Amino acid sequence: MENDDGFIMVGKKKKHNNKNKIAIKKEKDKNSGFIYKSYKTKKTSTVANKISTETIQNQIEEKRTKLLESKFYVQLLFELQIIKPLIQYYRSKEKPEYFNVDIVSYGIGNFMKSRISQFQFALCILLKANLKLNGKVYFYDPIFTEVEKEVINNYGFEVIEDNEHGKRNINKMTLFYMPHCNYNLYNNVLGTNWELGKLSKLILIGNDFSIYDENMVSSKLESEAPFLKAILPLTKKVAFPELFESNDIFNNTSIHFFPKSNLLEQSEQFWNMKDKYKLEEFKEISN
Q1: How far apart are CA 103 and CA 68, in angstroms?
Q2: In angstroms, rounded to a whole number, what is the distance separating the alpha carbons of residues 268 and 272?
Q3: Least trusted range by pLDDT, from 7-16, 145-154, 229-238
Q4: Calpha distance 108→263 (Å, rounded)
Q5: pLDDT band at 11, cuts 50/70/90?
Q6: How far apart are CA 11 and CA 17, in angstroms?
Q7: Cα angle 67, 73, 100; round to 5
Q8: Would you tell me which CATH number, out of the four given (3.40.50, 3.30.420, 3.30.110, 1.10.10), belongs to the domain 45-276?
C-alpha cells in the first residue's frame, strides 16, 4: 500500500502483524541500492531557490519541535543511553564535553516534499546534539535536489556527491543513520568494514536486522546480504519506541552495534568472508 509520501508498507507474508511491517521508499531502479519515489523538479531562479530553502528549513524546524515535545523522543533519549558508553573513548581534544564521532546518512529521500523525510532529517539533527557529537555529518541520496543540498549545507553538514554504494571505509567511530534503507545497502556498509577494529567502531540506525531474518528465506538472505546474515547473532540492538505520530516514520527502526567481545570470538573463516563475497555495485541514478 502506498501513502502520500511514496512509501510502501511491506510485511510478513504469513502473519498479519502491523508490528513487522517495514516502510520503504518506492523503487525506481532495482539496482540503485536506494528504494524511493522520484519527483520531477522544475528549474527555479536563485531567488526562488532561497525562498524554497527557507521554507524547507522552517518545515524541518517545525518537525524538530514536534519531536522534542513528543513522548516518543523522551523514550528515545532513554534508549540512546546505550550509545554513550560506546563513544566515551572518543572525546574531542578541543572540546572534551563532545565526542569526535561522524554521522553518515544514506537514503532519507526528498525532504523537500516528504514529511517522513523531514522528520528523519530533524531527528538526525537531534541525535547529533543529544549525543554531543562534533564530528562531520554527511548526507547522500541520489534524488537530492540542489535546493535540498543547499539546506544540508546551511545546517553545517556535507553532501556526498557521488554514490558510494554504501561502501564507506571508516577510520573512526561512525554512526550510520539509514532509516528504511534497502538491506543490500546495510550489507555493503558492513562488508566494507569487515574488520575487528572497524565493526567495533560502527553504530547503525536502520531497519531492525532481525526482520530480514524472519521474512526472507535463509538461503536468499545469505546470498544477497551475507554480511548482514553473519553479523546477526553478534549484534546488540535497541529498538526505537514503537509509535510516533503514525507508524510510518520510525517503525521497525533499531540501533545496532557490534561489541568487540563478540567479534573477538570469531574464527578466521568469519573474517575471510570479505575475500569470498563481492559487494554489489549499484548504478548511479540522476535526480
Answers
A1: 20
A2: 6
A3: 7-16
A4: 30
A5: very low
A6: 8
A7: 95
A8: 3.40.50
